[in-house]
Specification:
The chain is built from 6 helices and 7 strands, in the order ααααβββαββαββ. With 211 residues, it is an alpha/beta fold. The protein has a 5-stranded mixed beta sheet with strand order 4-3-7-5-6. Strands 1-2 form a two-stranded antiparallel sheet. The longest helix is centred in the N-terminal third of the chain and has 30 residues. The chain is rod-shaped. The C terminus is likely disordered.
């Protein structure tokens, strides 16, 4: 509204409406802070984004170098040398063929191991006939003695290294070998019957063993 000091008329309805609407026409309202400083804000935001990208790139490169897997040794993928200058043949798409583990050798029977034959039936000369029969089978150290009377034959051994030898004797006697410490000898054969084909040998020919 015009200044009352220079305006010659009394305020009327139009003056009051003009006061309510505010300045217009040539008068301009003051621009907001954001609009007046838009270019400065854009520069600051761009600088912050650039700094964030640089920091992320630096940290990402450092982490990637730590987590990178170590290169595999060339010897792991290289084919094995066969010894004649040529790579060994491979199976299953290039994998080097592996040798199957060899089976353990069966324990050998020691026919030179000391063997004690006990006459469990106490029949005259039977232990001597067993001694001769075993010697014909290749046993070189067979001794005889009179054992306790029993109805059951048997082959007994004390040590594990004598197991194969005792099992060979047990097969000849017709029994199962058994690990036991009840006899003084490492391998003891208790017999109650004649030794197979030697059953008809005259006891007089085997005299002198006292069994």
């Amino acid at each position: 509204m015009a200044d009352q000091s220079t305006y010659p008329y009394e305020p009327d309805q139009f003056d009051r409406e003009a006061d309510q609407v505010g300045a217009h026409g040539a008068h301009r309202a003051e621009e907001p802070f954001f609009k007046r400083n838009l270019s400065t804000i854009i520069v600051i935001v761009a600088a912050l984004l650039a700094l964030a990208l640089v920091l992320w790139a630096v940290s990402g490169l450092g982490k990637g170098s730590e987590d990178a897997p170590a290169p595999a040794e060339s010897s792991a993928s290289a084919p094995a040398d066969s010894g004649d200058g040529k790579p060994a043949a491979s199976d299953n798409g290039g994998e080097a063929a592996t040798e199957e583990p060899s089976e353990e050798a069966a324990p050998e029977v020691n026919r030179e191991a000391p063997v004690l034959v006990l006459n469990g039936k106490r029949k005259q000369g039977m232990a001597g006939r067993w001694q001769k029969a075993l010697e014909e089978q290749g046993w070189t150290k067979v001794d005889t003695d009179t054992g306790k009377r029993t109805k059951n034959a048997g082959v007994y051994y004390k040590n594990d290294e004598d197991k194969a030898t005792a099992e060979a004797l047990a097969k000849y006697v017709g029994v199962e070998a058994e690990k036991s410490d009840k006899y003084r000898a490492n391998i003891t054969v208790v017999i109650v019957e004649e030794p197979g084909d030697l059953a008809e040998i005259d006891g007089a020919e085997q005299g002198g063993d006292g069994e």
